[in-house]
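Two proteins were folded this term; both appear here.
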Amino acid sequence: MHKPGLLPLYSPSRISTYQSCPRQYKFRYIDRIPREEESIEAFLGSRVHETLNKLYRELQLGQRLGLPELLDSYDWLWRRHWHEKVTIVKQDFSIEHYRQFGKRCLETYYRLHEPFDRGQTVGLEHHVMTSLDPDGRYRVRGYIDRIVSLGSGRYEIHDYKTSGRLPAQGEIDADRQLALYQLGVEGMVSDAKEIGLVWHYLAFGRELRSTRTPGDLDRLKAATIVLIDRIEADTEFRPIKSSLCHWCAYRDICPLWKDGPVTTDKGSKFQVRSSRFKTGNSELGTRDREAELGTPNPDPRYVRAIEKAAAGDGEDADLRSVSREALREAILAAAGTEGAEVRFLEHGQLWVRMGQLMSPDALDGNAAGWVQLSDESLPLLFRQVERARWSATFVEKLQRYLAS
């Protein structure tokens, strides 16, 4: 919570942290509990970003790094910043595997964009800040990887991703981060007539693009204000259990981990280890194999069939049943006012229709537009808030359903 009299200051990553897990948000942004631990995915992403930053800074000075020079810079940055608190969750991957993965991302990007003559780079790691309301009570800030001027008032905001998952276009069009940055650029550049948003998914050698209309940005402002209000009003900061827990630096103090590691849906456990980097060509850690990297995220292109109501016997089960029935009524009432459709099926499964209404007979586990509510589907539901389809209050009721 911000102090009385001071305006709230948020970033897209800060808001996303709350949506992923309110308890992690509290540990990081309210209690400000320091953590030296860093995931290998985050470490790799930082080194790739720094290397691309160096590439374009040299270009601004009239110098173009060759690919071997660029990769040498990456290796130097990797060695310089490596520390013993870097952790690896995916035990099948060695440190060398991650390092080589970053080099492949850079090599792919270099070959695709050489000779780097599209537009003029006018900002690198550029800090932007914008107000979401006329009174300046809701402020958002962030850092843009690269801003490009194409001339005639046309600009692009570029963002580099080292994730091993390629999102669908619908996710890109609903992304909050770069759209908020667009608001900042519009306030910074007086001649901006058109701003494009560009994501570079380096592992795939793909560019994903999106544009936002003034109406889209107005809805984004309103939805983000709702989310900030929800965060500011939260007093419980309940933890959310998901596969993201295995990448969290606060596992040692999280109540969900008090009885040991959180298991995945298949019952397996992720093991976290800290690793030391060594130079040379020797194999480090466990065996190396090709696979997706990056923090796992739920994929809204597919209907989830994950969560079932907890089974139990005796009095405790009866109490849970009463609680769920009460929540069902509250959720159905909220859905009626939200224009959403909710269906409760066997085994306590809760399905939510994301768009136009359709016959419940179509709920065969693959019906487009339906999602079975689970811990992992919450980020998808929050995106509906961002797109001003649902209110934060309604999503909160769904979240409480999961926790009951």
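Next, the second protein.
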Amino acid sequence: MSRGLAERTVFVIGAVLLAALAALAGLLVARSAGARGYPVDELKQGVNAANLQITPMFVIRDRTYAIAIRPFSPGATDPVVWCPQEGFFESPVTGSKFSGVDGAYIAGPAPRGLDRYASTVVNGVLTVDPTKVDPGPPRSQAIPATKLPPCDWKSAVPAPGVVLPATPTPQPTGPSTPGTG
């Protein structure tokens, strides 16, 4: 084997080995015992639509916490969207509404607040375990969804990879309280 060919072979093997080590290091940071990580400083304050590898979610970040919210109605597969104009999440299927601060129940037929993925923040990395889902907070009282403004569907944000129904829940066009108008 010529010296030039041997040097190129060693260079290629070294480059492949270096790339493999870099990929493994990234995997180790991103996954630990089934958990997946997301650098908190890359999240804006408030609601973030996120996709940690293949798991769609919403991550809510505040100065003191970050939580990962399951982007579906509690105990169901109906998607929810973030409605930034109104400051809440809404199910386009049922009209249920949830807080943009923590996913707590606000209104509609949902049995509770939005479910959460088990998550913690360690060394500035939000670690999420999509295999562990904690039920959302219990609802305090059932409120008709029509008591709140409808989501502005033109600005609604779904979680990445989540398919929405063709038409969102129709919203009332008249006054929401009898005797007004």
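Helices lie at 3-30. Confidence is low (pLDDT under 50) at residues 14-33, 172-181. These notes refer to the second protein only.
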